[in-house]
Design goal:
- The structure holds two protein chains of two kinds.
- Chain A is mostly helical.
- Chain A contains 17 helices and two strands.
- By secondary structure, chain B is mainly alpha-helical.
- Chain B is built from 18 helices and three strands.
- The radius of gyration of chain B is 31 Å and the shape is extended.
- In chain B, 43% of the residues are buried.
- Classes of the chains: A mainly alpha, B mainly alpha.
- Chains A and B meet through helix 2, helix 6, helix 9, helix 10 and helix 11 of A and helix 1, helix 10, helix 11, helix 12 and helix 13 of B.
């Protein structure tokens, strides 16, 4: 794993080169008074020259060694085991890794212990090699940088070039993250769709994943796994719909009041107050929904003779609605505020009352923004996880009845991927396929919202 | 003149007739607005009230005070105060004896029941005490022990005396003992030793948030260390250096999309890439911090860009005019002026990261870990995940402890946000 001392060592070496650089610059300055840049730029130049290559080596080696080891260990697994029919390299690797980490359950086969010992010896070797490699790299490259310094050398320009490229590289992280998300989800999804046909996944009406281990154990459940995601999406949309029924009226009326009727003081007080609702962690809402709202609904339901499930779509939806109020109220408030005063004045000039001006002039003018804020709230509701995990339950019912228990896409992803997973099983892979659909839906909504604003925005002035 | 036009007098009459209705409509709209805001505020207050009402008792628990005979031979048989020696000693037995003196149980069955009154952490407590103060040996000292969670629930009134014995988790004998202890003034209701300094535990009376709290701090530290430099660097590059072209436009689209991706997806990415491909261990704050950093990056970038954009061009022109290079202008003038805005955005991003649960569940920070993590590569958990785990437990006491943990979490979130607002008010300049 990460070697903190080595990292500190590399940084220390580069700091040394900083002082060497500054010293050299000072000496040059004494010789013939005409250096191009300020002295510390020479120091920084030497520092960056020493630090960057060795950091690069450090990260490549620390991340790469596990991958390398995994490939090298293959030759230490006996061939008869590799050739046996239920051999799975990922599982073998996990066995060896557990043994390396000291997590030994029962007596592992001799080859596992053997491979683990070899692995451990590699770790020690790799530590030594990495340390030597990094320090030598930092010394050599630092020396190279240091020797480049002479009185004709324009070190400020060189340092600035390096810094600008560092800034550019960090801006690429955003692209890398997106690529990482897409790849991590897409690969596994493709493998899932090789097992389960895509139309069965999208249009099947029964969601009943079983671990293959359970199937193999002969519990009479062979072939019972079904991966129809329709009930999950139905549940997701049902809960989102309930949430919108709460948040749209409250959010919009609040926005209208805050932007049109409220005094400055009132606005300064209530706007942040509503935004607190968005700042409360979702796990707190989940706890609130499961322990306060759901029992309350159940009790009041039984009073009037309604049978409400203890984990109902209603409880999750109501609480989620409260959570997304500020997404609608804040954004809509901003948009309504951006409508120019001249439009309102024109309305008043024609003799309309305040409410007529708002409903017939201001809101229509602000409509694209208001719609966008609602769409963003929908995408938020669809992606919300903790409230539904804690309050909506896991029963995949295909129902439109808000009083029954439903499950959602995010809740299923969490239950499938939390805890121990079976490698390569269709159940584990199905979580990635669900995540892929989730990403497509939320990004699609986001894109749609942006386009609504772009297309229908009125340009004033 | 065609008759389609109204005469002014008629028009006035029509307006006068309808004006009352229209004004009523106007005040109705205003009322709806007030009502909506009032409703939202009520939700907020009710949420906070519920948490507060449930959580405050979570900071307290019932204790029993016993006269413990600190017999050196029995507590520390090897006499070296080592863990090994202390745990092979008879500490639990001594505590039980002290209890038996007070309540006088008769027979094996009653003794067995009486032993369960005190939480199972009693020997650990004795060991801790003698380690801190070896002078205790040979004395008889009053020591407070936490009561078992069932007894605690009984004393709080959640387990009712009137319930038939076979339906209640505390039987008649135990109630008799408790009454005896109560009559002697041995039972007290005090601030809990465990909630703030204990770690995850299956015994609700000994469970605390220290492990999760330290885990949260470590995770947040990693997150800050990665997200702040990267976010600020990206913002500087996009705002000040890069030309507007296809590539920068693509970067901007990516940043906006990342802001819209559900948080659970970041967890899946962490699982697939950091744990799957890079081979990092599960459940460690380092991976958690990295995932949260990628998640908060858009927030920090967007607010930092806004802060940089708010610095007036005249500042840049002045710096460039007296011969500063482009980077000198940025680092000596623009960034210091934009710093309050950047910090505000970063704090808000960190608050978001502190409350986040779902992505951390994905990377296995949900494991049951008793030890407090010492570094970013020790397995650990974080506060929101701890709350999620506790919320699942059935014991009554966990409900209160969960609410107490939520109160701690909310306190931190609110103070972070308040600090951000303060910073913005105090340092931000209007040009």
């Amino acid at each position: 794993m990460f070697n903190l001392y080595l990292l500190l060592g590399i940084i220390l070496v580069s700091l040394l080169f900083y002082f060497f650089g500054v010293n050299k610059a000072k000496k040059l300055n004494l010789q013939n008074n005409k250096l191009h840049s300020l002295k510390h730029y020479y120091g920084f130049f030497a520092l960056l020259y020493s630090l960057l290559p060795s950091l690069g080596v450090y990260f490549i080696v620390t991340i790469g060694d596990d991958i390398l080891f995994a490939n090298m260990i293959k030759s230490y697994i006996p061939t008869d085991i590799i050739n046996s029919k239920d051999f799975n390299f990922t599982i073998a690797l996990a066995q060896i890794n557990n043994s390396v980490d000291g997590l030994i359950f029962g007596t592992p086969p001799a080859w596992v212990t053997n491979a683990a010992n070899i692995w451990k010896s590699w770790i020690i070797k790799s530590h030594i090699i990495t340390s030597i490699l990094c320090i030598v790299t930092s010394l050599i490259s630092g020396y190279l940088g240091h020797s480049k310094i002479n009185h004709n050398f324009r070190s400020r320009n060189a340092v600035e070039k390096i810094v600008i490229s560092l800034l550019a590289i960090s801006s690429i992280i955003a692209i890398l993250t997106t690529v990482g998300i897409i790849f991590s989800v897409a690969f596994e999804s493709i493998r899932f769709f090789a097992l389960i046909p895509i139309d069965e996944f999208l249009f099947g009406t029964v969601w009943n994943p079983q671990f293959e281990g359970a199937e193999r154990a002969g519990s009479g459940q062979e072939g019972l796994s079904q991966y129809g995601s329709l009930p999950l999406f139905a549940g997701t949309f049902l809960i989102s719909f309930i949430a919108l029924c709460v948040s749209v009226p409250i959010g919009l009326y609040s926005a209208v009041y805050l932007s049109e009727y409220a005094s400055k003081k009132e606005r300064a007080f209530f706007k942040p107050l509503l935004e607190i609702l968005a700042g409360v962690p979702t796990v707190v809402y989940g706890f609130f929904a499961a322990l306060t709202v759901a029992p309350f609904l159940r009790n009041s339901g039984s009073l009037i003779g309604l049978d409400i499930a203890s984990e109902s779509a209603m409880a999750a939806g109501l609480v989620m609605g409260v959570m997304i109020i500020p997404f609608i109220s804040s954004l809509s408030d901003d948009v309504i505020n951006a409508v120019p005063q001249s439009l309102r004045d024109a309305g008043y000039g024609l003799g309309s009352t305040k409410s007529e001006t708002i409903l017939q002039i201001v809101i229509p003018a602000a409509l694209p923004g208001v719609v966008a804020s609602i769409i963003l709230a929908v995408s938020r509701a669809i992606g919300e996880t903790m409230i539904v995990v804690m309050a909506a339950g896991l029963a995949a019912n295909l129902t439109g009845n808000p009083l029954e228990a439903v499950t959602t896409v995010t809740a299923q992803i969490v239950t499938i991927l939390v805890g121990d997973q079976e490698f390569e099983s269709a159940k584990t892979l199905s979580a990635f396929a669900l995540a892929l659909t989730l990403i497509i839906i939320t990004l699609g909504l986001n894109f749609f919202a942006l386009n609504v604003v772009k297309k229908y925005r009125e340009q004033y002035e | 003149m065609s008759k389609n036009f109204l005469k002014p007098a008629d028009a006035t009459a029509i307006v006068k007739k309808s004006i009352k209705k229209r004004r009523a409509k106007d005040s109705r709209l205003k009322l709806y607005g007030r009502f909506a805001i009032g409703l939202a505020t009520c939700f907020l207050l009710f949420l906070f009230y519920t948490i507060f009402e449930k959580g405050t008792p979570g900071f307290f628990q019932y204790y029993v005070t016993l006269d413990v005979n600190f017999d050196k031979e029995r507590i520390d048989p090897k006499g070296d105060l080592s863990d090994n020696s202390l745990f092979s000693g008879d500490a639990s037995k001594i505590v039980n004896e002290a209890l038996f003196i007070l309540i006088e149980p008769k027979g094996r069955k009653e003794k067995k029941e009486a032993k369960k009154i005190i939480s199972s952490g009693k020997d650990v407590r004795i060991a801790k005490m003698v380690k801190q103060n070896p002078n205790l040996f040979g004395t008889i000292t009053k020591v407070k022990f936490a009561l078992d969670d069932d007894i605690d629930s009984f004393l709080r009134g959640y387990i009712k005396r009137e319930t038939p014995e076979n339906e209640r988790r505390v039987n008649d004998n135990v109630i008799k003992f408790i009454d005896k202890l109560n009559a002697e003034g041995r039972i007290s209701y005090d601030f809990s030793d465990y909630i703030l300094s204990g770690s995850a535990s299956g015994n609700p009376e000994m469970a605390g948030i220290k492990g999760a709290f330290v885990g949260s701090i470590l995770t947040l530290f990693v997150c800050l260390l990665i997200a702040f430099p990267l976010g600020v660097a990206t913002a500087i590059y996009l705002e000040e250096i890069a030309q507007k072209n296809k590539i920068t436009e693509f970067i901007e689209v990516n940043i906006n999309n990342l802001a819209a991706v559900p948080s659970v997806v970041f967890g899946i990415m962490g699982l697939a890439i950091f744990i799957g491909i890079f081979g990092m261990p599960r459940s460690i704050p380092l991976v958690g911090g990295m995932v949260l950093a990628l998640m908060t990056l858009p927030t920090i970038i967007i607010s930092s860009r806004a802060a940089i954009r708010a610095v007036p061009p005249s500042v840049r022109d002045a710096a460039l005019g007296i011969g500063a290079s482009k980077l000198q202008t940025i680092f000596h003038h623009v960034i210091p002026l934009a710093m309050p805005g950047m910090l505000t955005g970063t704090i808000i991003g960190m608050a978001q990261a502190l409350g986040e649960t779902a992505p951390l569940l994905m990377i296995g920070m949900v494991a049951f870990i008793v030890d407090v993590p010492n570094s970013v590569v020790d397995p650990g958990t974080v506060l929101p995940v701890q709350i999620f785990m506790w919320a699942d437990f059935a014991e009554r006491m966990f409900v209160q402890k969960t609410s107490a943990a939520i109160m701690v979490l909310l306190t931190f979130l609110i103070s972070m946000n308040a600090f951000a607002i303060y910073l913005r008010k105090k340092l931000e300049r209007r040009w």
